[in-house]
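Need tokens for this chain, all 111 residues.
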Amino acid sequence: MVRHSKGRQKIEMKKMTNENNLNVTFSKRRNGVFKKACELSTLCGVEAAVIVFSPAKKAFSFGNPSVESVVNRFLTGNHPPTLGTARLVEAHRSENVRNINYQLTQVYIDH
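Here are the structure tokens for all 111 residues:
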């Protein structure tokens, strides 16, 4: 007996109603997005960061070289700091990242 599968099916682009399917799809696609960001970073030599929130409101992130350094560079528009100013910039960056995390959480909770 030969089983024939339906193969890859096109998924309609709307929010899934089945919670189990939604969670499985989120996990698989999140990993796929992170993999693509990693490949882009490796192949093109770019810095990349991705932050996503699960249906359960849990945050997931990927960054190369790190989420914090990419977010800091985005916020300041600066290139990586020189060694002489690294401590001062690191303290400032840590505060910025804490503020961004807080703001992202608030935006997500409010919606």
